[in-house]
User: Which sequence fits this backbone?
């Protein structure tokens, strides 16, 4: 089972709405669902909530150490309560997924994420679980630092928020330790893409007609008109 749920981010109002704080947004949503209140705990260098569940106590944690030293907070709480790495879930922003998508995985590298890098070092293990919350990529590596510390567009923020809401359907499975069920819910919870309209065949020809293509007046010898960008 997952006994410690961590959200990564940076403390302070200036960072609250930035992409790098997606992990904080997730823990805030989980706390609301579990009717828990986060409060400052100096011993664990973060905001903490303890939740009593049918399978035992679970801790929620938002490190207040700044991203690059998140492991200090995670390791302090995990060691005190004797929580093993495989009982820890870390939610974080993920450049390699578009806004609105998420992936659950256990272990692996830190892929350059400084928060994960420090957790690796402080726990001495990579066996913890990660919930990767897509924020998209700026397209240029040199822009990554500014991008993650910037605010998402309205459209992207709505997609990330919707993704977080969908992820809450997996919380019970995470707490009970049914990681296969949690993975299935998280990986199949994307809203379905709308299907393109089916082409309508021209009567008597069997040839699909472009339903939306404008046509020229029906004058003898004239051909259907095309709009800019249409194929000839």
Assistant:
């Amino acid at each position: 089972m997952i006994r410690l749920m961590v959200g990564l981010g940076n403390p302070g109002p200036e960072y609250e709405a930035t992409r790098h704080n997606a992990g904080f947004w997730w823990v805030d949503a989980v706390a609301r669902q579990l009717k828990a209140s986060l409060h400052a705990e100096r011993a664990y260098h973060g905001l903490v909530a303890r939740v009593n569940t049918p399978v035992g106590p679970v801790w929620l944690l938002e490190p207040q150490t700044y991203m690059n030293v998140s492991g200090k907070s995670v390791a302090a709480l995990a060691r005190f309560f004797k929580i093993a790495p495989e009982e820890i879930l870390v939610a974080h922003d993920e450049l390699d997924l578009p806004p609105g998508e998420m992936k659950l995985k256990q272990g692996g590298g830190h892929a350059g994420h400084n928060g994960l890098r420090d957790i690796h070092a402080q726990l001495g293990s990579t066996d913890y679980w990660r919930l990767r919350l897509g924020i998209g990529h700026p397209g240029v590596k040199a822009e990554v630092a500014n991008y993650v510390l910037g605010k998402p567009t309205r459209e992207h923020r709505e997609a990330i928020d919707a993704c977080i809401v969908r992820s809450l359907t997996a919380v019970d499975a995470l707490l009970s330790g049914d990681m296969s069920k949690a993975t299935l819910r998280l990986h199949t919870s994307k809203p379905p893409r709308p299907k393109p309209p089916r082409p309508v065949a021209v009567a008597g020809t069997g040839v699909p007609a472009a339903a939306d293509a404008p046509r020229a007046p029906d004058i003898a010898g004239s051909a259907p008109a095309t709009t800019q960008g249409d194929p000839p």
Remarks:
- The chain has a mean pLDDT of 87.
- The chain has seven helices and nine strands.
